[in-house]
């Protein structure tokens, strides 16, 4: 996709918010990796001056620790993705990879262990045991290091909630790209978890997700891109980036029936409570 095909910048938000989950190390369709300074500048221009860069394999985690030292707009998260853990285990490399993640996670600007969790969509039954063990290991790591936890949950709601309860969730636990229903949103909010909504909440076929958002208290909410994936409407299919967060925030405000400044204030405050200062 050429630069000219990129969605135009939306109107700026009245109060700056944080993109709490993006992958600046990943390019779409084998295109070039985004230029970091440009990505940060474009986002800052529409009221998204800070973001959490998530590296969820070893190369991505090394990239994350490198860039958070060089760009004040970025904090980081590192982990082994639930689809990555079984691949590493099959090659006998999981223990070594975990040791390196543990080292990288100790960096003072890495504020998140994530994304970890469960993915029963892309990984078949043969990988479930490794995924669950890896998830438990990441939960323990977040608690030992005093970091927040970001969870990837795809088609695995019940097991994610069960394992969090069994292990004891870290003090700051985020369901990244929340995809549950009303009952799950209520359960997560009651447990004190944060629910991070992505561009999926703008999709036409996502009425159930909007219902879940509508019952989520303002003090539990975060917003994210999961860029370069999950581009909000009306640009579904184009590459996503943090400068498109205002589209998701405005859609969320509509669902919650709050004004945009009120929602932005909550999103910014919650992000600082979860990740600390930039
Ligand atoms: Zn992600």
Please provide the ordered H/E string of secondary-structure elements: EHEHEHHEHEHEHEHEHH
Bound molecules: zinc ion
Averaging pLDDT over every residue, what do you get? 96
Helix content: 40-55%
Word description of this protein:
The two termini are 32 Å apart. The protein contains ten helices and eight strands. The chain has an eight-stranded parallel β-sheet with strand order 1-2-3-4-5-6-7-8. The radius of gyration is 17 Å and the shape is globular. The mean pLDDT is 96. 42% of the residues lie in helices and 15% in strands. The longest helix is centred in the middle third of the chain and has 18 residues, at 128-145. The chain has helices spanning 36-44, 58-70, 84-90, 94-105, 128-145, 157-167, 182-191, 207-214, 245-256, 260-275; strands at residues 18-22, 50-55, 74-78, 110-119, 148-154, 173-175, 194-197, 221-223. With 278 residues, it is of the alpha/beta class. Bound molecules: zinc ion (ZN). Residues 21, 23, 54, 115, 226 line the site of zinc ion (ZN). Zinc ion binds at residues 21, 23, 54, 115, 226.
């Amino acid at each position: 996709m050429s630069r000219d095909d990129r969605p135009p910048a939306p109107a700026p938000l009245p109060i700056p918010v944080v993109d709490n989950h993006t992958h600046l190390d990943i390019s779409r369709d084998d295109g070039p990796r985004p230029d970091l300074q440009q990505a940060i500048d474009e986002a800052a221009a529409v009221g998204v001056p800070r973001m959490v860069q998530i590296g969820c394999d070893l190369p991505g985690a090394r990239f994350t620790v490198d860039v958070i030292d060089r760009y004040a707009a970025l904090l980081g998260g590192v982990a082994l993705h639930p689809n990555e853990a079984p691949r590493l285990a099959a090659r006998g490399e999981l223990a070594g990879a975990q040791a390196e993640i543990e080292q990288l996670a100790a960096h003072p600007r890495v504020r998140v262990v994530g994304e970890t969790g469960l993915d029963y969509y892309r990984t078949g039954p043969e990988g479930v045991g490794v995924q669950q063990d890896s998830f438990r290991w990441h939960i323990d790591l977040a608690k030992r290091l005093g970091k927040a936890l970001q969870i990837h949950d795809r088609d695995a709601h019940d097991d994610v909630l069960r394992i969090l309860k069994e292990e004891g969730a870290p003090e700051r636990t985020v369901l990244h790209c929340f995809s549950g229903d009303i009952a799950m949103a209520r359960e997560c909010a009651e447990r004190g978890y944060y629910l991070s909504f992505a561009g999926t909440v703008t999709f036409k076929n996502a009425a159930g997700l909007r219902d879940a958002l509508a019952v989520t208290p303002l003090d539990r909410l975060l917003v994210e891109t999961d860029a370069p994936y999950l581009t909000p409407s009306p640009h579904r299919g184009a590459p996503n980036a943090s400068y498109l967060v205002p589209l998701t925030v405005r859609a969320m405000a509509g669902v919650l029936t709050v004004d945009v400044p009120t929602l932005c204030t909550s999103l910014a405050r919650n992000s600082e409570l979860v990740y600390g200062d930039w």
